[in-house]
Amino acid sequence: MKKIALAAATILGLSTTAANAAINVCVFDLLGKSGESFQMAQEWALAAKGWGADVTLIPKQDEAVADNDFKAGKCDGVFMTAMRARQYNKFVGSIDSLGGVPSNAIAQKAITFALDARNASKMVSNLGGKKYEVAGVAPLGSAFIFVRDKNINSIEKAAGKKFAVLGYDQAQKVIVQRVGAQAVISDISNFAAKFNNGQVDMIGAPAYAYKPLELNKGLGSNGAVFNFPVMQITADFLIRPEKFPAGFGQKSRDYFVKNLPKSFAMINRLEASIPAKYKVNLTADDKLKYQKMMRDGRLELTKMGVYDPSMMSVLKKARCSVDKANFECSLAGE
Description:
Residues 1-21 form the signal peptide. Helix content is 43%, strand content 22%.
């Protein structure tokens, strides 16, 4: 009995040590420790102590470096945009599909559904013999089109204009090609600078980026922001589950869902803070053109394997529950 008790105590001791072992989590934020994303991660790390994880946050101002450090095992977890994280989990990464989530209300529904315990198996993936798990999704808000010249106010007028696209996101390349614009391959660390200094005419960005990236410089006195969301931008939190206590992933996902109202309240404030003088509404005809174009793009990207078909179906149901009269609701394909 003494041997059994000793063995049990040893196992318990080992599991306690594993649960309390230091865990490194890389956090991508263009502003480093002073950015909103890093501050959000700090709140999460405090909560994680209650789940048995002693987390050290490592700020990364270059997203590619954060991703590479995660791949190399230098980070046990990583916060980064879903556009780059899609390589690890297509189901969650497809929330950021072209026109898939046209409002913050639908985004909240989609994220809540994805992170529900019923989808726990879809949160885990195996790549190259390594196991990864999505332990959270945080909204960054709708991406809007920013233009340096407000006269670029239709699809036809975008033809030939320079549009900064993230080189690793196939979706952006497809949509820019469809409007006939000229894709300028960029990175999340320099796309705003290219817009501000006139190297490109157009970018897509959430209100979240307006102040920190000083997009008012690119808008100047003649620019505009079109009041038409082209996609929802989210950040994913990925972990190597074996480095975290058992059951950690779902506890973390529940935390993110619980904090969604707070996150969207902040996003709504940021969207309202963009000066009204820059905001331009599209005509009803142009809105319909964009919706049809983005639907065609989603179908193409799903066939290419970029988007997850099951998430496309979920998002369509969410859109049509809000707007039953939308042209797409009577169409098959998603």
